[in-house]
Design goal:
3-stranded antiparallel β-sheet, about 20% strand, alpha+beta
Length: about 170
């Protein structure tokens, strides 16, 4: 069956394509493979920084959890070591012992609890304060964590903090 188009040309079948018209020839080069370039640009500018941000965020949350656990353990151990048991037995009064042994116990417990700080590459520091009037021990810890994502205005290290308070009570 012959089909006639507007220009008057005859085609034998609908599946046959008409000859190329001179106006349909492209003067632009082929765009095959350009999606690969756009994908590479997207990965480099959006996805890679986002992945680095997620990695840093998860590391900071991990260090924060470990630091809080170590601070709690150090403060509880210091409170246990600071209790003046002979004074309580003699007088029935609760008070803190006045010695530096308590700070050493807290530092030792803190260091032992954070055994993997070299693997995770952070620098922890513990501060212990004895509150004699209230029979409490305050512990404050800070860890300096280096970050991978060092974008514009972002520091090379981030300080993570944790606090704990423990009281001495024999009753």
């Amino acid at each position: 069956m012959a089909i006639q188009n507007i220009a008057g040309m005859k085609y034998e079948d609908r599946r046959m394509k008409p000859p190329h018209h001179p106006s349909s020839v492209s003067i632009y080069p082929s765009e095959a493979g350009s999606s690969m370039a756009w994908t590479a640009i997207f990965l480099a500018t959006v996805l890679l920084p986002l992945m680095l941000f997620v990695i840093d965020g998860s590391r900071l949350l991990y260090v924060r959890g470990r630091l809080q656990t170590a601070t709690d353990a150090a403060c509880e151990d210091a409170a246990w070591a600071a209790g003046d048991r002979p004074n309580y037995i003699d007088t029935g009064q609760t008070r803190l012992g006045n010695n530096w042994y308590v700070v050493g116990v807290a530092q030792n417990t803190f260091t032992r609890t954070l055994g993997e700080n070299t693997r995770m590459a952070f620098t922890p520091l513990l501060s212990v304060t004895l509150d004699y009037p209230n029979n409490q021990i305050w512990c404050s810890a800070t860890a300096r964590v280096p970050v991978i994502f060092n974008g514009v205005g972002v520091a090379a290290q981030v300080n993570v903090r944790a606090n704990a308070t423990s009281g001495v009570r024999f009753r």
